[in-house]
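Proteins fold reproducibly. Take a sample protein:
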Amino acid sequence: MYKNLIRFFGIIALFSAVGFSFVGCEDPFVGTQFGDPIVTINGTPKLMMKFTASSSPSSNFSGDYTWSYSDNPDYSWSWNTYGIGEECYSGANRSELTIPVETPNLLGKYIRASRHNHITNTTVYSNVIGPIQLADVPAIVLSGTPQLDMKLTAKSDPNFSGDYKWYFASSSNSSSWTEIKKEEVVPSSCFSGTNNFTIPITALDGSSFVGKYIMVKRLHNNVSEIQSNVLGPVQQGNLDGYVIINGTSKAGTKLIATSNSNFSGNYTWSYSDNPNYSWSWNTYGIGEECYSGDSRCEFTIPENLVGKYIRAYRRNHMSNSNVYSNIIGPVQP
């Protein structure tokens, strides 16, 4: 009997020891022994400010951070930062987000981030920061690569209104800026949307933007125009393979096409009702008297092309392909 009691208590002691060992051996990555895995964001909730995300312990996490925003800190979060351009993201694993000034409008919104915890196969969400406020100074920002044939984009906060006005000058601190007007300084095709400007290879007068500086202005609070940052000097970049036409899009005026030594044969001129598609096969129906110059590099716009857009192309014998020029138009009477 005593032997049986001893055996009984021995079994209880064994199970107690085993049970204690199970309780004491917590997963070092899950649970509370080292704290729950977390994602944290820091930053000042204002337009143009940079938010930074971190995760701890880092060994629990993998993949990029996903940023999202909402009108309410408790629900209805966007699916990712829908509409925010890639230029707003930076850092390893997209750990940094610069709040855009215009698109989408994040004023009054709340921001959070999340990241995948591969240990538990779950998504861990960060703290919430917001609401987003206006920047300390009026926010009007010009971005892009200052290089020929590259697009620049202007953005501003909701207190701005009206058209963006584009300017160039010979120095970044010039006191004399020249407005870049459609069909006076550059072709209207250089402008797209309400806030984009593609730097032309040449201005309408044949001059170059290389070495120039560019900025924008826009009306703030319906009171005064505010200037953006300045980009420049404009670089030429790699222009091998470019066909360029210069001239004024007006009936009776002469357009001149140029290209580098990669090209051979005649220039082919064509027109369209729309600058984006449906180009004629050559300038069908246009008399030979409209063409002149070496390799038909000159084209005098006839009256029947009023309202049309014009471009040229030439054969690049180095790449064995046709290279198309910039577009001029619509042709004015």
In short: The domain at 140-227 is CATH 2.60.40 (Immunoglobulin-like).
